[in-house]
Fold these 3 entries.
Entry 1:
Amino acid sequence: MYLEFAGLPGSGKSTLSSALKEHLITLPCKALSRKEAIILCIRRRNDGFIKNMIKRFPHRIWWPLMSTQFATPEFITLSSRHLEFVAFLSKLLSESNLSKTLVYSIWETIIKSFIEVQLISQHTHAPELVIMDEAFSQRCFTLFGYMENSISDELILSYAKLAPIISQHVLWIDTDPHNCIERLKLRYQNQISPYDLNSAELLSNFKAGNNILKRLYQALKDQGKYVHHIDGNEDKNISISNICETATMIIS
C-alpha cells in the first residue's frame, strides 16, 4: 500500500511526508519513504546471483550500477498496461509549445514515475506502507503546470482516467502559490534555484497548476478515490498534526 502526495513546489510535501513517516513508525507501522522503498525494492528484485550479492553492500556502492535508471523492465511492464496513457502524453507533448528541454524533462520524470510505481507495486509486502511524496497525481502538475494555453476539463478528466494512479488515497497539500514561492526563496537563498523566483510568469504558472490539481482531485473523487485535503498554509505543526491524524484514520 502507498499514500500518494501532491502539491505545488514549496507546498510542504517533503516536510509533511517526512513528519508523517516518523509518526507512523511510532504506531507502530512499517512506513517507508519513497527513496527507502525504491532501495528496498531493487534489493528484493532478482538480478542474478552476482548482482544480488553486490546489493548486500550499502546502496551507495551498487546504486550507480543497478538503480532506477537501469529498471527498463519495470517501465515496460507498467507502461505496456497503460498504452492509451502513453499515447495521450505523446500527442499532448508533441502538440505543445513547450521547449524541447522542458519536454525532455517531463518525459524523464514521467518515465521515472512508471518505474517507481511498478517497483513498489511488485516488491513491497502487505504490512509495508510507502509514503510517495511524488507519483502520478503530482505528474499531472508536471505535465500541465507550465503549458501556456488553458487546459480543458476534458484533458484533466482524460488524465485522471488514464494515468496509473494506483493508490486509493491521495494527500493533497493545498498551499497558496504566493506562500510556495516565499518558501522556495528561503530554500534556495544560498544556492542556485531551478526557478526564477521573482518572475511573474512563475506565479502565473503556480496559480494555473494549483487550479489543475483542484480539478484533478475532483475527477479522482468522481472515480471513487479518497482525496484528503491538507491546508498547507497553516502553521507547520498544525499541518503535521492534521496529516498525521488523517493518515492514522486511513490505515486504522
Entry 2:
Amino acid sequence: MFKPKLRQLPYKSRIVVAYPGMGLNNGAPVLDLKDGELTEVQNGYSGAYPSFEVRPPRSNYATALTTPKGMGKRQDDYLVVQDGTAWKKWNTTSEEWDSLASELTSADCDIIDFMDKTILVNGTDKKYWDGSASGDISDMPASHFLAVHRNRLYTANTGNQNLNISALRKYDDFSTAGDAATIVVETRDGGGCTGLVQYRDHIIFFKATAMLELFGTNPNNWQMQVASEQIGCISHRSIVEVNGILYFLSNEGVRAYGGGSDPELISFNVQGYIDDMDRTRRAAAGTDGRRYYISLPVSNDGNVLLVYDTLTKTWMAEDDTAIIAF
C-alpha cells in the first residue's frame, strides 16, 4: 500500500489594494487588466481618481422638445435649437421657446455665430437670425456643416466634395470672384464631407476616410494639405476641441489630434463598445473643459455615454442616454 507523506508547504501572501476608479477597460483580456480597472461600470466619474466616484447629478434646462435636430447658441446669450420644422430660442424671462422661423425641413442641423448673425443650415434650409429678425440666405450653397475662420464663413455638404468660402465678412456672399471661393477637395475615395471645423488657425475638412487641412486666409494664399487618406471622421458632432487637442470619432474609434502627426487612436479601453457601434446613427460629443463626452450609438438602437478624462487618460461610462447634441 502506498502512503503519501504529507508535509507543510511554504506559502506567500500579500494584501492587494485596488482602487476601482482607474477607468473602464473592456478592450483587454480580463487577466491583463490593471488593478483598479473595471470591465463594466455605470455612472462612474473620474473626479476622485484613482478612487471611484459617482458622477454629479444632472438637471433639466428649458422645457422638452418634440423632435430635436440640433442645438447652438447666440453670443452666449441665447440657447437656440431646431425642433422638427421650427427654429427656436429659449426665452429666460418667459421661460418658453420663442419661434425664430418655421416650415424648415426636419433634418439634422448645424448652427454657428458669424459676425453679428447666427446661421443655421440643415442641408436644405439656410437661415440667419440677427437677434431681432430672421430670414433666408440666398447666396449660399446647400450645406450641412459650418465653420468660421478669419472673418469668413466656411460651409460643406455631405453630397459633394466642395468647400465653400464666403467673401470677407459676408455671410451671404459666396460668389464674388477674387474674394469668395469654392475648393473641390478631391481624394481617392471621392466621398463627400463628413465634418468641418476650425482648429489652430486653419480649417479641417473631414471625409469618412480622409482628413485635409486648409491653410491661409484668402484666395491668394489658400493651400490644401492632406493630413491623412486613411483616417477620417464619421460624425461631425463628435468633433470637439479639449485643451488644444481635437477629438473625433473615426471608423476605428475615438482619435486625438494635435497636429503634425497621424491622429492617435485612444479608445482601446472601450473597444467593446466600439466593436458594437452602430454607424447608421450619429454620435454626439461635448466637453466640460477637461473631459470628452461622447454619446455612442450601439446595436439594437441602444446608446452609451462614454467619458474620456484628458488629464488622467481614463475612460468611464455613465448611462444609456441618447444625446442628440451638446
Entry 3:
Amino acid sequence: MSVGSLVAQNVLDCLARHDRRYFLIGANTDPEAPGNFRCDMAYTVPQTDVAPTCLDVYRAILDAERPHLVIPCRDDDLSALAALRAERGDDPAFLCGSEAAAALFVDKLAVYHFALRHGLPFAPTAQDPADVAALVSEHGFPIVAKPRHGAGSRGVAVLRDAVDLDRAMVVGGYVFQPFLAPPGNWSDILRSFDVGIPLHFAVPVPDQYTGQAFIGPDGSLAGAFCSVVAMDAGKVAASRRIECPSFMAVVRAFATAAAVEGHRGPLNLQCRKLTDGRYVPIEVNGRYSGSTSARALQGYDEVELAVRLALGQPLPPTPTGTSYPMVFKVPTDATVFSANAETLRRDGVWQSRLNGDRAVKPAKR
C-alpha cells in the first residue's frame, strides 16, 4: 500500500489490532514519512502521475514481493492499480476494480453522471456556465467549487456570492454544487472576514453523513455501514455509528451500481442530510477513508473483510463483542530514526530488522 496518507494510517491501525501476523510492504515518495517504518519493508516510488515510470516501479515491486493484497490508499492510486490489475488478468489481490470504474472516482463530473445513469440521488453538479447559472438560480449562494479532478478536499472553496463565482470561473477547472444543509450560523462564519482572512479558518461540518460499503471480488456486497462524522478542517474529528434504513438503502444502491460498472473493494459516500430527511451524496470515493479505523472500533472492520476475502477465508460474523458507538480522532506522535530514513533515501528500499520496533506485528519470511 501507499503509506504516506492519513487513510494509510487508518489501515495500519486496523491491521495492528488483528491477531494474525502480516508482512507489510509500503510505498511512498517521501523517505521520511513515518508510515514507511510501520511496515516490514518500504520502497521509495515516483509520483503516481509520472507515467510510465511509476507503473514500471510498481511492476518491479509486485514481481519481487508477490503480495496477497494490494491496497490503494489515495485517489491517485486507483487508476494506476486498476491498470496493473487489468495487466494481471483482473487479479483479485488488487483492492480496486476496472480502469473505467477507477476513472469515475477521480472525476467529480463523471461521478455525477454515474449517479444519474443509475437513477441515484446526488447533489446537482455543474461545470458549463449555463448549467452553473441555472444551479445558482435554483439554489442560491453559498455554493461549493471543487476541482473537477481534485482529491482529499484540496482546493475546495465555498463561494459566497457572484463575485466569488466569477473568479472561480476565470480560474477554471472547477465543478460547482449547492452547499446542501449549510450551518445555521453561516452569517457568523462569514463575519470573521470583515477584517481580513483569519490565520486559522475552516467551515465547521459537525454532521457529515458517511456511508461505507465493500464490494467483493465477485461483485457481491460484502458489508455496509452508516455513520455521522464531525469534520475539522477536512479531517475526521469524531464518528458516531447510526442505524438508519433509508440511509443504508442509499449506500447499498450506490454499491450495487458501482459493482455493475466494475468497481471492487471499498466504496465511500459523503452525504448531507436535508431538512426533509433525505440523504444526498456530494462525493463518492473508491477507497478506504479517514474514519476506517474508527469504523473498525464501531464493529465494521472493512480491512479485515479485505484480508479474509484475499485469503479465501469465511467472512467474519456479525460482531458480538464490544463495539464503540462513538469514536474520537486525536493527534498522536510518530518517530522516525534518521538512519532508517537515510537508508530508504539512499537505496530506495528499507527492510526492518526481524526484532525491530513496529506498531504492526511482523511476519517471519
